[in-house]
């Protein structure tokens, strides 16, 4: 939306307010690329103690942890040690344009959230040690949740340091951060109590790599049939889904987890189970790219696509497709038809 004659129109963010009373200041603000990059870099290099009841008195040095296992799923799809992902182009006005970026697997999916001692809790979901059980499925979701909580904290801290950022934007980020804190407290309690029965999970076993990997904690809005499950404009606490990838021998696993009392999360996953099998993996790829920046794919995958599909993926990654229309893209990926998979669920 331009600045000027459109100031009295409804804001593009969907708040229902006039543009001039909502995101006008943010849209009019043009900080330098260097300043944006510096603020983002500083915010995403802060070291946090995300393990429950941990601090500098009980932890050793915080390390750079992978939310997606480097030696497993990332290495499976890497070529010469690199993968690709869509990254926000901070040189653009609204920062909602994404560009294709090459990144090494030593850096991909990392965050500073655990010391070496507490990062060891994820040892049982690393590669050959992985077996499907309540605890391991929980740990995959917990690691994804911690990553996104870390990112939400970084977004809030960086937005708060930028002058002329509209207060409603900061409040929206803050609300998201508080919602993730609520969910994380539930997951933290499960670790401390060693009780993983309060979660449900769905595991997809594939007989070969998907050529795309992802890990995230996402709010549930519409299901896979475009039916509204949760109105994020009317609620404060939202149900969410946590998911991640893990590999073992020649198999790849995609694991989703959620709180057992999250009816909307269950409905979302049930809608996935109900769609026809021959498009399930296509829908997942679309979902990963649309809902998470922490999504990586191989050079082979991307270069196998025609230009129209590449363009649509970029639009999905840039979050320019309204939530209620995101499944209507109906993207088809020929190579997914060669992958055999089965669904293992606990709900």
Explain how this protein is built.
The chain has 347 residues and is α+β, with helices and mostly antiparallel strands. It contains ten helices and eleven strands. It has helices at residues 24-28, 33-43, 70-77, 116-119, 134-161, 167-193, 263-274, 280-291, 299-303, 307-317, and strands spanning 62-66, 82-88, 98-104, 110-115, 199-206, 212-214, 216-219, 240-248, 251-259, 295-297, 341-345. The strands form four sheets. It has a five-stranded antiparallel beta sheet. A two-stranded antiparallel ribbon has the order 1-4. It has a two-stranded antiparallel ribbon with strand order 2-3. Helix 5 (134-161) packs antiparallel against helix 6 (167-193). Residues 1-5 have low confidence and may be disordered.
Give me a quick take on this structure.
The protein has 347 residues and is α+β, with helices and mostly antiparallel strands. It is 35% helix and 19% strand. Helix 5 (134-161) packs antiparallel against helix 6.
Order of helices and strands: HHEHEEEHHHEEEEEHHEHHE
Query: What is the 3D shape?
Result: globular
Radius of gyration: 20 Å
Number of helices: 10
Compile the SSE list and pairings.
Layout: H1 24-28, H2 33-43, E1 62-66, H3 70-77, E2 82-88, E3 98-104, E4 110-115, H4 116-119, H5 134-161, H6 167-193, E5 199-206, E6 212-214, E7 216-219, E8 240-248, E9 251-259, H7 263-274, H8 280-291, E10 295-297, H9 299-303, H10 307-317, E11 341-345
Antiparallel strand pairs: 1-4, 2-3, 5-9, 5-11, 6-10, 7-8, 8-9
